[in-house]
Amino acid sequence: MVKGQVGYGTHPVLEELDFSLEPGGCIGLIGPNGAGKSTLLKTLAGIQPPLGGQILLDGKALEQLPRPVLSRKIAYLPQERELSFGYTAREAVLMGRYPHLAWYQQENGREREMAQDCLTLLGLAEEAEQPVTALSGGQRQRVLLARVLIQQAPVILLDEPTAELDPVYEALVLRLCRRLAQEGRTVLLSLHDLELAARCCDRLLLVGRGRLLGQGMPWEVLEEKKLEQAYGAPFQVRREGGVFQVAACPEPDARREQLLQKILEERGRIK
């Protein structure tokens, strides 16, 4: 259960939050850039404390749970795709098992096999022994997704998991999210593509203007007035045969047109 506000220091980013995440749900977090999606996910992951109210996990306040316990219960994919220098892809994935090991234990053969299985699932079987610094941005992201998967946590928080992925792996990751939810996990992922969110997710959370503007089934949240309130621009929403078509319709902006014209005119003057 999440109730209260999140932010940085004394600066609130999202207020009046009130929602729950249930096991077996695949929930999409949507809203414009800068609306607070990443801040909310970091707070839910226990990386930063809530500014007010409470976040309960299994009936206990999140900030009161020790970090090792949180790491076993919550797997988090950050928006920053940083990986430690010098590790191979397999070693980076195996870091997801650290919460389950005592300080004196090392990964066993089964865990190394699991790491290889996770890499193979995400199309990285041949890159297992490559240093992560030699991988592309999309490959590094899939390594991090494999690390989330091997962690075997009941709660999975993913910040833009499809960014940098081509259409094939985008579809694979979203199918994986749905399968994890069907197996009883709680999956919360932020997405910018509203049509993709409607196809993949059972429920949506819409944030904007500093608060939660909508929650519920996709057809309840993807309403033109709610989207306009969140994004500050008109939207057209159509639903045919259960498939959503969502398009932003920003009005012509005279100021932007003037700036663009100025930039284009400067092209011939700069030498």
Strand order across the biggest sheet? 6-7-8-3-9-10
Q: Radius of gyration from the CA trace?
A: 21 Å
Instruction: Estimate what percentage of residues fall within beta strands.
Output: 15-25%
Major sheet summary line:
6 strands, mixed
Oligomer: single chain
Distance from first to last alpha carbon = 59 Å
Order of SSEs = EEEHEEHEHHHEHEHEEHHEEH
Low-confidence spans: pLDDT under 50, at least 5 residues?
none
Structural class: alpha/beta
Gross morphology is: globular
Please give the share of residues in helix: 25-40%
Tell me, rounded to a whole number, the average pLDDT: 90
The number of helical segments is 10
The tally of beta strands, per DSSP, is 12
Task: Please outline the helices and strands.
Blueprint: E1 2-8, E2 11-19, E3 26-30, H1 37-44, E4 52-57, E5 60-61, H2 67-73, E6 74-77, H3 89-94, H4 109-121, H5 137-151, E7 155-159, H6 167-182, E8 186-190, H7 194-200, E9 203-208, E10 211-216, H8 218-221, H9 224-231, E11 235-240, E12 243-248, H10 254-266
Parallel strand pairs: 3-8, 3-9, 6-7, 7-8
Antiparallel strand pairs: 1-2, 1-4, 4-5, 9-10, 11-12
